[in-house]
Amino acid sequence: MPVVTVIYDTRSGHTRMMAEAVAEGARAVTGVKVKIMQVEEATGQDILETEGLIVGSPAHCGLLSWRLKKLFDDNADTAWGKVKGHIGAAFASSGGLGGGNEMTLWSILNILLNYGFLVFGLPEYAAPGVTAHYGAAAVGKPGANEIESCRLLGLRMAEFVLWMHPSGADVKPLTQQKSPRA
Fold it and tell me: Model pTM?
């Protein structure tokens, strides 16, 4: 059974709330095992042994947290270049507008690309003005719309993993969703 893994770091608990919503979205798809863990619990094997990896971080000066960076730095020998064809995505939270969410998302996606992950964002809107083009994002405590964006990110990851995994060849990602775009 293909695995979707959610690895996150959090300081305020906001990124944890987002991680739980991402995992909930992925669990909505039958045929995928979902693992969720804080960065301190994660290992190189967790990066290597997943078909879909979703990484979440608070924005630290527009970058992923040092704990997440350390996870990837310390496990390059284990997983770097060995996850070709696996799928990656990102989510981030910040303390305020202009707090660096998009840069944080890009820093996560950059690492995933370097490891060999195929990465994606969402063209759908979870609510008017709530996009996830580079990944799900929240400013402060995530509200209902941001939580829905996280669920959608997890749902799409599970669909893509099944679609690309040999056992899920007949599964196609949902492409017909009404967008509440503003």
Answer: 0.90
CATH number at 21 reads 3.40.50.360
Domain count, the chain: 1
50 phi, psi to nearest 5 deg: -135, 140
Q: Which tens digit of pLDDT belongs to each residue from 62-94?
A: 999 999 999 999 999 999 989 988 999 999 999
Sign of CA dihedral 100, 129, 18, 172: negative
Residue 12 maps to a domain: yes
Give the residue among 32, 42, 18 at the shortest CA–CA distance from 153. 18
Cα 27 from Cα 113, distance rounded (Å): 25
Range of the domain at 26: 3-168
User: Phi/psi of residue 21, each to 5°?
Assistant: -70, -40
- Kindly give the pairing relationship between strand 118-119 and strand 3-8: unpaired
Cα four-point dihedral sign 43, 80, 107, 133: negative
26 vs 9, 91, 101, 111, 153, CA distance in Å?
Answer: 19, 14, 22, 22, 8
Crossing angle of helices 144-164 and 14-27, rounded to 10°: 40
